[in-house]
Amino acid sequence: MSPRLIAALLAxxxxxxxxxxxxxxxxxxxxxxxxxxxxxxxxxxxxGALPGETTIVFENSEATGNTTGMSHTLTFDTSTPGYNxxxxxxxxxxxxxxxxxxxxxxxxxxxxxxxxxxxIPGHTAMVGEFVVSxxxxxxxxxxxxxxxxxxxxxxxxxxGSATVTLSATDAxxxxxxxxxxxxxxxxxxxxxxxxxxxxxxxxxxxxxxxVAGNTSAEGMAHFTVVARPxxxxxxAVTASITGSQDPxxxxxxxATARITATDAxxxxxxxxxxxxxxAWTAYTAPVAVTAAGxxxxxYxxxxVAGNVSPEGMAHFTVVxxxxxxxxxxxxxAGNQDGSGNYVGKAVVTVTASDAxxxxxxxxxxxxxxAWTAYTAPVxxxxxxxxxxxxxxxxVAGNTSGVGSVAFTVVAGGDxxxxxxxxxxxxxxxxxxxYVGQATVTLTAADAESGVDxxxxxVDSAVxxxxxxxVVVSALGAxxxxxxxxxVAGNVSxxxxxAFTVVAAAPPPDACPSSDTRETVVIGGIDSQVENxxxxxxxxxxxxxxxxxxxxxxxxxxxHVKAVTQELVANGVLSTGxxxxxxxxxxxxxxxxxxxxxxxxxxxRLKR
Length: 607
Fold this sequence. Notes:
The protein has 607 residues and is mainly beta. The protein has a five-stranded mixed sheet, with no helix packed on it. A five-stranded mixed sheet has the order 10-16-15-12-13, with helices on one face. Helix 3 (553-569) packs antiparallel against helix 4. It is globular, with a radius of gyration of 32 Å.
């Protein structure tokens, strides 16, 4: 019997006898989000939770770092595929609202993944996700395996293409996602067998994550694709876009892309397309694009011999048959006196929504000035009466009527400007020049209304809001200017700091007799990776040191993996180049067969 049913039965029994009903059980957990002056990220957010009734706390206040009166929302995504959509939450918080920016809501979470974001225009980079585990105490990651199939030649290479199939199981909370990474590229969600037709050696890494958030160790499949003999000509591929168009050539509501490929040699093996920079997808039927906005379609084809066509491209725009203008509104926030005037400063937040084609832009103007794109709440600190007008346009070109808010700002009594100081730090040489870089730290103080913000500019650059120490690494003489503004609107005099950055002396050559071959070659196997200097006078061939003594081939391969991993961490090698070098080491046979290896392994190492 569930705890809720037991509680309900107990309440009924107590009511019969005239006794007090026990209190309802509190939610199982509390999850807290906070926001500050940033429009790109939340100040804090949870990454995991348990299923069940949960108290959501969203605080956007001066206590959490919001010193500008900026509004934010905490909104749960209810439409993007791959996430739970069973919680509808949209909380708007402002430091000056009736609850001083702190809001609570009770929701019920279920196992899976939730996505959240800020719905204020210009704040869309404030986004994140958290995982609700199955609640069963699952700490064991999934098991994931890979199988490679395709037609092989006598040496074991795949003719034309190889197909990699991944499978994952999890006996606890269940598999949530499977991902793969081909030749050091980006991690991609696995949705079906991966066809690799590019000629050459390949590495496909794979991993899986369960609902409880446990991620498996990375696995790897290693294989080589070679061209089929005879056909060396890639397919011809074209695309056409069709649909109803408006006078500007935009497609109304939907554009349909049709891709056609031909190959007179071995025949077409596959056709793929990529929409708006997404993942390459197998083309099996015309592609209908309904999302409003500009789109870019790339496409390519591969024949049975493994030849890949050059990428084609089609560019088009979809608009909605929308005749309804957006809905736009504004709210004024700030500290008010007894007459309703705003003391020192008022902050205007504009919000817009459009159920048709979607909001394209929001604009505002202050006291009849120029219309300006709205990206963040607008502070108004000039003493006097003000009118802020606003409007919005949607993707279909409909523009709302002009709305307005009127208010008055009065002086807060503070007429004294803040003080600001500049500190430059870093390693210096004998001439007091900064070696490699200099760090500029700004501080300001105001004994009355308090510091609102600090600004700086380096040399002839534009004034920029200061949020953290500024690192200057460009060589030469520099001047940093700074100024501060308090809450009452007083601006300090500019304070300047001058300094010079010089280059650091080059390190000594650690390998005076370097292996200077053009590419990294291991035991006669050419990896095709450039044999560059790693920064201390040594080349990649030097640190691989193929001529040293190794007790086994396994020991040599482990050595190569270790040194190349360090080069990747130091930014010398890409992951793809590292994989090619490791592949060459595996195929080289240096160090002999691993201890206890059978005849098949030794035969493979000799190839």
